[in-house]
Amino acid sequence: MEKLPKLTIPVIVGIILLIILVSKSSVTIGSGHAGVLYQTFGNGVVTDQPPLGEGFHIIAPWNKVFVYEVRQQELSEKMQVLSSNGLEIKLDASAWYQPIYSDVAKLHQEKGEDYLQRVIQPAIRSAARSVVGRYTPEQLYSTKRDAIQEEIFEETKKILDKQYVQLNEILVRDVTLPPTIKDAIERKLKQEQESLEYEFRLVTADKEAQKVRIEAQGKADANAILSASLTDKILQDKGIDATLELAKSPNAKVVVVGSGDSGLPLILGNN
Fold it and tell me: Which fold has domain 73-182?
């Protein structure tokens, strides 16, 4: 095998060193991420400049870059908390959060890469214990789920204020009560529902009775007014009108043979 020219070996070594240098002096930031620059021979974490954005960056080989995901992320938490009367409640919740992009260097400097365990999880657990402790198991089971979700969100947000993390939403997926308490609550709710249905039937029946009484009273009042207005003279006139109308009928042959009671004509037909 022929020896390589003397100039070739230094060139190859130089190329290898250049490749190593470039690999050590560059970083690529992926989508939805940001880079925090750490200057080894400077002031450490660079907080007075924007973080490194997506794409390729050249850095000094003795510096470091810490990459953070700045997209919305989800944290699932299953917690055991106490209600207002001291009963253990299991709470299954999720938090949507993300680092504040402009403050990611301060987040790295003050909280570190494990900020989720140091900051967010304790905040959610503390808020959940505080909020659930205000309610009874019955309220948590039936009517207050939306309320506790909103309250946990607001309290967690206050705790995370100035912690360089943005809280977007808290979702309470499930509230689990002890089986005996759950059964008792369901029986009570069923009894209350049956009681409401019974009261509704009573109210409906009472309204129907009132309606019948009002209609009967109306008829009675109408008959009383009518009776008071029917004098003998009015009845005689109505009898005459009825007799005349009957006499006009083509199906009857009328013969007047005298007068009936109250002076009305007596009419006999062909029957």
Answer: Tetrahydropterin Synthase; Chain A (3.30.479)
Q: What's the pLDDT band for 128 if we cut at 50, 70, 90?
A: very high
Q: State phi, psi for 144 to the nearest 5 degrees.
A: -115, 15
Contacts of 235 (CB under 8 A, 6+ apart): 262
Q: Where are the domains of the chain?
A: 17-69, 73-182, 236-268
Average pLDDT over residues 128-142: 84
CB-based contacts of 149, cutoff 8 Å, min separation 6: 93, 170, 171, 172
Backbone angles phi, psi at 97, to 5 degrees: -145, 170
Residue whose pair of structure tokens reads 């009132």 in the numeric block: 210
- Residue 213, pLDDT score: 80
Query: Phi and psi dihedrals of 192, rounded to 5?
Result: -65, -40
CA 238 to centroid of chain Cα atoms: 73
Higher pLDDT, 211 or 156: 156
The pLDDT confidence band at residue 211, using thresholds 50, 70 and 90, is: confident
